[in-house]
Design brief:
Blueprint lengths: L2 H28 L8 E14 L12 E11 L4 E15 L6 H6 L2 E16 L12 E13 L3 E4 L2 E4 L15 E14 L4 E12 L14 H8 L1 H7 L26 E12 L12
Helix pairs in contact: 3-4
Length: 287
């Protein structure tokens, strides 16, 4: 892969993903509400996590895992806020469950625990007031950045084995298992009292790594891999089941994954937050 094409791809990912951040930023700047409602919220939620990548290229939602999160939100007013969130998600993918014949023949699988910290801006489409019986509901958009850790594993002889140290695609060194992501999403907020708010939130992570699932490029030279990392690395690099359609799968240099798109994952949570900010009175204009 030449450096020019790599740079072009990075620039393309930046432009497409950051568009969401710019949109939300523009919305933040356009709001000039007269009623300020500043203050902090803290809470948490439970939900599901889903992975998208080489083992799930069609955004299938059947291989989900559990997720949980804690969040702190600062409300600038009734429309805008900034949120810091720490999340856990269990991700997985399995070629044997795919509808695509090539994937079933390739026969790769993985699971991964992810621990994520994100910071996002939020924009409420409707004004959201604490302490009233009106304006207690609003959909919202969010966008920001994230840093997260991951650790793909595969099952081998009944044991779960870490894949990064095995360099299953013949890399000279193991890839980093800490990466960043552009995040964007949205949800619904609903005030059930002055202090308590239900949050239905989805946050999509467009990551900067293609090894969330340990799959990215081509099959390595098995003899070289065996001399470097042992037979377990060879077996987990290529657990394929050759067929009439794909008799040569697993040979050195043949496609194992695609580096064209980075991996992604989403976290959907249903949670509750407690508000302990102040509620200011409206500003009265004089004519």
């Amino acid at each position: 892969m030449n450096s020019s094409s790599s740079t072009d791809r990075i620039r393309s990912h930046w432009l497409s993903s950051s568009r969401w951040i710019f949109i939300v930023g523009a919305l933040l700047l356009t709001y000039t509400g007269a009623i300020a409602q500043k203050g902090w919220e803290i809470g948490g939620g439970l939900g599901i996590a889903n992975y998208f990548g080489d083992l799930n290229p069609h955004y299938d939602l059947t291989q989900i895992g559990p997720a949980a999160g804690l969040q702190v939100r600062y409300n600038f007013n009734t429309r805008t806020a900034i949120r810091a969130q720490a999340s856990y998600g269990f991700l997985r993918g399995d070629d044997s469950k795919a509808l695509n014949n090539y994937q079933r023949v390739r026969n790769l699988h993985f699971t991964s625990h992810t621990f994520d910290f994100s910071a996002v801006y939020e924009f409420n489409f409707l004004p959201l007031f604490h302490g009233t019986y009106t304006d207690v509901f609003s959909p919202y958009l969010s966008a920001g950045l994230s840093i997260f850790s991951f650790n793909p594993r595969a099952k081998y002889n009944g044991q779960w084995v870490r894949l990064a140290p095995l360099t299953t695609e013949g890399q000279n060194d193991a890839y980093f298992t800490v990466s960043g992501a552009y995040v964007f999403g949205g949800g619904i907020k609903y005030n059930i009292s002055r202090e308590w708010t239900w949050n239905f939130d989805v946050l999509i992570h467009k990551t900067w790594t293609d090894y969330l699932d340990d799959v990215s490029t081509v099959y390595p030279d098995k003899t070289l891999l065996q001399s470097r990392r042992g037979q377990i690395a060879v077996d987990l690099s290529d657990p394929s089941i050759p067929s009439e359609d794909y008799p040569e799968i697993g040979q050195a240099g043949y496609q194992r994954g695609s580096p064209k798109e980075k991996d992604a994952f989403s976290i959907f949570t249903i949670g509750i937050t407690y508000y302990f900010g102040r509620i200011d009175c409206p500003t009265i204009s004089e004519f």
